[in-house]
Amino acid sequence: MSCGSKIRDLRKNNNMTQENFADYLGVSRQAISKWESDESFPETEKLIKIANLFNVSIDYLLKDNESSEIIKELVAPNYDVLKFKRDHNLCAFMIAFGVFLILNGLSIMLLISSFLEEEKYFISTIPFFIFLAISVGIFIYFGMKLDALSKFDYSLIKSYKEENEKEKRWLTLTLTFSTVLVLINLLILITILSLLNNEDSWPICIFLTVLSISVFGYIYMGIRISKFKNEEAKNNEKKGEFIVSACAILAVIIYLGCGFIFELWHIAWVVFPILILFGVFLKTIIYGKNE
Fold first, then answer.
1. Higher-confidence residue: 32 or 225?
2. Phi and psi at residue 220, to the nearest 5°
3. pTM for the whole structure
4. Mind listing the pLDDT tens digit for each residue in 58-88?
5. Radius of gyration of the chain from Cα atoms?
6. DSSP labels for the chain?
7. Please, which residues have CB within 8 angstroms of residue 242's CB and are 6 or more apart in sequence?
8. What is the C-alpha separation between 88 and 75, in angstroms, rounded?
9. CB-based burial label for 224 (10 Å; 0-12, 13-18, 19+)
10. Are 291 and 233 in contact (CB under 8 A)?
11. Separation CA 185–CA 262 (nearest Å)
12. 228 pLDDT more than 80
């Protein structure tokens, strides 16, 4: 079996079009067509990229006596570029949406608690824990899917550098907008509470809702740009996510303890934004410099 035939079979078994394959290697579609029909031969550099992409040896590609029957065992996961982008962006959106749900669950909990007597505050936690359960399910499912996608070597794509710079610009804009939005929102909250001088919950509910929008943007763009990171940076990202998750779990424990033991349901919610933001800050300080 010729080298061109093996390249063609590997590409088709990975559901790649000649256009997508050409994008990975930085060549024209016509060049791919000539390789596969044995009219020309890939350069050594391209052979190495092809071997790495499909998880096969260069010897396998060059030796005519290698059987194509083992291709199904050797091929890498589906490397369709457009599908990868869609799946990666969907994971980023859903994980960010999970955090969005948690913060809005807090907002709804506070709003409901404002209509209840103090001894019945625990009832307001029901919608929050429903939102929390949905979010945990989202984190588990899409987190596993994102982990599988992280094995994809995005640097093989021809437009890697251009896309990386574009995503970084969007990330910078998102971070700037989110930070300014939170600071303005916090200033408005302090002003309203000082003017009202009461225990109304609606200003805090609005603050949490706006905060959830800011955090959503930060997480969404942060995950989107993660596909450009090297292996070490991806490992650091996972460690950082563990820190944030640990802070979130600690917040739940403290909240429940303050609620059930001291009946401080109405004020104990503050541990969530404090500890989660602390986790994000800690993650940035420890691992951010390596990204």
1. 32
2. -60, -50
3. 0.62
4. 877 887 655 444 444 434 444 466 777 888 8
5. 25
6. --HHHHHHHHHHHTT--HHHHHHHHTS-HHHHHHHHTTSS---HHHHHHHHHHHT--HHHHH-TT--GGGHHHH--S---HHHHHHHHHHHHHHHHHHHHHHHHHHHHHHHHHTTS-GGGGGGGHHHHHHHHHHHHHHHHHHHHHHHHHTTS-GGGSTTHHHHHHHHHHHHHHHHHHHHHHHHHHHHHHHHHHHHH-S--SHHHHHHHHHHHHHHHHHHHHHHHHGGGS-HHHHHHHHHHHHHHHHHHHHHHHHHHHHHHHH--HHHHTTHHHHHHHHHHHHHHHHHGGG-
7. none
8. 21
9. buried
10. yes
11. 30
12. no
- State the Cα–Cα distance between residues 279 and 41, nearest whole angstrom: 52
- Which residue in this structure is represented by tokens 């890939």? 42
Q: Which residues contact 30 (CB under 8 A, 6 or more apart)?
A: none
Structure token pair of residue 93: 């959106």
**Whether the Cβ atoms of residue 224 and residue 87 lie closer than 8 Å to each other:** no
Among 32-36, 167-171, 283-287, the minimum mean pLDDT is found in 283-287
Q: For residue 17, which amino acid is it?
A: T
**What digits encode the pLDDT tens for the residues 126-162?**
888 899 899 999 989 998 888 888 766 665 555 556 7
d(CA 233, CA 90): 21
Q: What's the CA gap between 15 and 226, in Å, rounded?
A: 24
Per-residue pLDDT reduced to its tens digit, 174-192? 878 888 887 888 788 778 7
Copy the structure tokens of residue 128: 């929050």
The two structure tokens encoding residue 159:
């437009």
What residue type is 194 in one-letter code?
S
